[in-house]
Design goal:
- The chain is α+β, with helices and mostly antiparallel strands and about 120 residues long.
- The protein has a single domain, classed as Roll (SH3 type barrels).
- The chain contains 3 helices and 7 strands.
- Strands 1, 2, 3, 4, 5, 6 and 7 form a 7-stranded antiparallel β-sheet that branches.
């Protein structure tokens, strides 16, 4: 099997809307989460901006942002149109009020350390 360098793996998959799965230290959870890339042109950006998809603390998030309900996206309502079915189990939301910024090099290092996975493309 040919090894594709992690830098090439990450750079080839960086596009708006791409989904990565990893643990981020800025979150209070010790569990990995799905993150969705926001950048319009992440292929050329050094910093990658992402929102996370969560399936825990949903009620707390909805309460905090009850005055901005359009900033919480429910994926379960869009299950038939969702390209990433694993994000709709059992119930997930995207909190558009909070984002993380990750340097491209950090994503590459996470991949080298085998702690970053791509949306159902690998294990």
């Amino acid at each position: 099997m040919i090894h594709i360098p992690e830098e090439i793996q990450i750079n080839s998959l960086l596009k708006q809307g791409a989904v990565f799965y990893f643990k981020d230290t800025s979150l209070q959870s010790d569990l990995p989460h799905f993150f969705i890339i926001l950048n319009k042109k992440p292929q050329i950006d050094r910093i990658i901006y992402m929102v996370n998809c969560t399936s825990s603390n949903i009620n707390a998030i909805k309460t905090v942002y009850s005055n901005k309900p359009k900033t919480i996206v429910s994926l379960i309502k869009n299950r038939n149109r969702c390209d990433y079915v694993e994000l709709t189990k059992p119930y997930s939301i995207i909190d558009c009020n909070t984002f993380i910024s990750v340097p491209r090099e950090e994503l590459i290092q996470k991949r080298k350390d085998n702690i970053l996975k791509f949306k159902n493309n690998d294990n």
